[in-house]
Design brief:
Oligomer: single chain
CATH class of the largest domain: Alpha Beta
Shape: elongated
Order of helices and strands: EHEHEEEHEHEHEEHHEEEEEEHH
Strand order of the largest sheet: 2-1-3-6-7
Strand content: 15-25%
Largest sheet: 5 strands, parallel
CATH topology of the largest domain: Phosphatase 2c, domain 1
CATH architecture of the largest domain: 4-Layer Sandwich
Helix content: 25-40%
Structural class: alpha/beta
CATH superfamily of the largest domain: PPM-type phosphatase domain
Number of strands: 15
């Protein structure tokens, strides 16, 4: 015999009919508890407790016909409801099923085995429906996250064959698909390559959406020829208008590599400076003192700093603070930019170039436990 849920709620005002139902369930050998209510009002607390199945009479003192079914469904939409009534009416049965009942059973015409099967099938159908709803909701969320992710993880606009852009993205929250980090790389007509990485405080979809907004705005401004010195001020104005809370801010780092690839201009807004990997080793670019993040103080200016990259082959590592703010072990010590530079220095010669980013992220996660 099929297994049935722990609790079956019988909503029946007639004591004789209730006793017959109890006998049928006992004869069917069903385990579990049978709870009873005589009215819809009396059933509401039991419905709130979450029974897996309700046997409902449609002729109750405080509800008649489909009104009783609708009230039970409103109170417990995820619970399987079977109508158990003395009215043998085909149209009423069709209407009840259309209104959400899993089955329509007529008193005196249903035996113990039939009742047990009807209950088990109804409960299982409800479980399947709930699973399908959850899967649909998960798919919709995944599709939405994928759209946001495509906005956060762009295709770099770089036409210099000597330059390679490699990216790695890992949300700060476990099981999250997105965070508030964003980046972009754009080469303009004179050969200058502008690279930007930013971080909207927080890790939810709202922060991710704002990150998409800022990234697209930055790319549009760069391609539109806006002066690099004006970009952060414009992004701050956009952030202030688009954020959903006044305390939301974003850090940003922008590097503009000169056409000869031997120097760059660095701009920081509350963001850690990039690491330069070259023949001289690994070192943080001198940022000249980072100014506040975007969205913190009005009418801010973010000055630029000229830095030398050198004539030898080099690599720039732009990153967000999530890579360095993780704790090291069980203590309170953070990884920090200095230790990150040491990890990069050790890995630069031991790890293939195309695997360096994943190595850094994996090492940071391992140290953070």
């Amino acid at each position: 015999m099929p297994q049935v849920p722990t609790t079956i709620l019988l909503v029946e005002d007639d004591d004789g009919d209730a006793l017959l139902v109890e006998d049928l369930l006992e004869e069917a050998g069903l385990d579990g508890r049978l709870a009873r209510a005589r009215t819809i009002a009396e059933a509401l607390p039991a419905l709130a407790a979450g029974p897996a199945c309700v046997l409902l009479d449609l002729g109750l003192p405080d509800a008649m016909g489909l009104d009783a079914l609708e009230r039970v469904r409103d109170a417990a939409p995820d619970t399987a409801v079977l109508v158990l009534t003395g009215l043998d009416d085909t149209q009423r049965a069709i209407d009840a099923v259309a209104a959400g009942a899993q089955d329509y059973l007529v008193k005196g015409r249903v035996g113990p085995d039939e009742l047990a099967r009807a209950i088990s099938y109804a409960v299982e159908r409800k479980r399947v429906e709930a699973s399908h709803r959850e899967l649909r909701a998960a798919k919709l969320m995944a599709d939405e996250n994928a759209r946001l992710q495509r906005g956060l993880l762009p295709r770099p606009l770089v036409f210099d064959p000597e330059l390679e852009v490699v990216s790695g993205y890992r949300p700060g929250q476990r099981r999250a698909l997105l965070g508030g980090d964003f980046y972009d790389v754009v080469q303009v007509a004179d050969g200058t390559v502008h690279a930007m990485v930013g971080d909207v405080c927080g890790h939810g979809p709202d922060e991710a959406a704002l990150g998409v907004c800022l990234r697209i705005a930055w790319r549009t401004l760069v391609l539109g020829g806006r002066e690099p010195d004006d970009l952060f001020a414009t992004l701050q104005e956009l952030l202030v208008h688009e954020r959903h809370t006044d305390d939301l801010f974003a850090t940003a780092c922008m590097v503009s590599v000169a056409p000869d690839r031997r120097s760059a201009t660095l701009r920081l807004a509350g963001h850690p400076p990039p690491l330069l990997l070259s023949g001289d080793g690994v070192a943080s670019l001198p940022g000249g003192g980072s100014r506040p993040p975007l969205g913190v103080l009005p009418s801010m200016l973010w000055p630029s700093v000229e830095v030398a990259l050198g004539a030898d082959p080099w690599r720039l590592l732009l990153y967000t603070d999530g890579l360095i703010e993780g704790r090291v072990g069980d203590g309170t010590e953070r990884l920090g930019a200095h230790r990150l530079a040491e990890i990069v220095r050790d890995a630069a010669s031991a790890v293939a170039e195309d695997g360096l980013l994943e190595h850094l992220i994996g090492t940071a996660e391992a140290l953070n436990g």
